[in-house]
Amino acid sequence: MSDSTNRLSCNLNSSCDCVHVLSSMVEVMGHRAGLSDKETNRMILAVDEMFANIAQHGYHGREGKVEMSAAWHGGTLSFELRDYASPLGKDEMLGWPVPGAGDDLTPGGLGMHLMQAVMDRIEHEALADGNRWRLIKYLGSVDPTRRAEP
Fold it and tell me: Which fold has domain 3-99+106-149?
């Protein structure tokens, strides 16, 4: 496949209902990479959750720009979401504790754990004018360093 068939990108408004756009991009890339429907649907949930986190925690429900790109290169499928919200500190979203058995589950923080369970790596980069998030899936084998990267 050419490089153009291995990459997709779009610009989104954080205050609109863009779930269908995100889902379609992830689905197309998942199928191009040869993933099963089950694996692809799990990645759709992870990307949708990241977008929701940006809208809710980054822009606080206000309108804001989100650039999304998806790339499949070799054994790696990645989704990058770039926002222009206030840059987050190192552990503001990735450092939340994992709920233990018997803990009361309350809203907030569970989405990051869902993304960490689905993706092999989650990377965050605080920029001068926003944040860059990368959700990475290794194809064919699981990376032994599977964890979120602050």
Answer: Heat Shock Protein 90 (3.30.565)
